[in-house]
Write a structure and sequence with these properties.
Length: about 280
């Protein structure tokens, strides 16, 4: 009878019987189970990514003057083209073993260029005479942009290459100021700007990392213009010959801003070479 009662008492515990050796063995043997642990990037000698960013003016000092067009006539205009905007490089490095390695898939080279214009207008049409600045051109802004991805630090292999093809674009009409009429401007298809970036070295000094490199930029711009005169008794449209502006190849220095890279030993990867500025 006692055996029967004891057997019935054990029935709820029967599903746990296969687990008893696992539950009792560590305690019986005096073995402590290891605590769960995770390995952080700092434990393995790594750390947070180091972002690298730098930018520089695009084509600093560039200017092109067309001279008066057409060479003669009741109305003539000259254009002076200037380059504004910047080129920029962004990438990231991963620290490890006291050094920095380029992080794949984080590099971007970006072109954000703006063509600005100044002008001079000369008119001798009937009773209207003018010879002075074409103030309305100061509001003209022709944006040219593009970007290209790259891996690591670009210390070897092909440079990052951006080729910005500019579609044919009709610009807003430019008033002629005190002269009745306007200037019609079109940026013709075939205009393009090409720029490349190549890093020369990664320099780490005093816990700061700098990626140093060079840009090479060139291009061609084609403008079509017409002077539309609304002078009383002298209404006329004067088509100017297409103006082709060749942007000569220009090399400039582009270094990233020194970024904190604590725990990284001083050193240089690559050969730091200063760019010879200008065409």
């Amino acid at each position: 009878m006692a055996t029967t009662i004891f057997s019935h008492a054990l029935l709820p515990l029967l599903p746990l019987l296969p687990l008893l050796p696992l539950l009792l063995a560590p305690a019986a043997l005096g073995v402590a189970l290891p605590a769960c642990s995770s390995t952080s990037s700092s434990d393995s000698g790594g750390g947070a990514d180091v972002p690298l960013h730098g930018e520089a003016p695009v084509l600093p000092g560039f200017a092109h003057d067309t001279g008066l067009q057409p060479p003669s006539g009741p109305a003539q205009v000259s254009f002076k083209l200037l380059a504004g905007g910047a080129v920029a490089v962004d990438t990231a490095a991963s620290p490890g073993g006291g050094k920095l390695q380029g992080k794949p898939g984080t590099g971007t080279y970006k072109l954000d260029m703006h063509i600005k214009m100044e002008g001079h207008l000369k008119v001798d049409a009937g009773t209207v005479k003018y010879d002075g600045a074409l103030a309305g051109l100061q509001n003209v802004d022709i944006p040219i942009s593009g970007h290209a991805p790259f891996d690591a630090f670009l210390l070897s292999g092909k440079p990052a290459h951006v080729e910005a093809d500019v579609p044919e674009t009709k610009l807003p009409d430019v008033p002629l100021g005190s002269v009745p009429g306007h200037l019609a401007l079109t940026l013709v298809a075939g205009s393009k700007v090409i720029t490349e970036y190549h890093a020369t070295c990664l320099d780490v000094k005093g816990g700061k990392a700098t990626l140093k490199g060079q840009t090479v930029t060139s291009g061609t711009l084609v403008l079509k213009a017409s002077i539309v005169l609304d002078v009383p008794l002298f209404k006329k449209t004067i088509d100017l010959p297409d103006t082709t502006v060749d942007i000569p190849s220009s090399t400039a220095e582009l270094d990233t801003t020194p970024a904190a890279a604590s725990g990284t030993a001083d050193g240089t990867d690559g050969t730091c070479v200063a760019a010879a500025a200008g065409p």
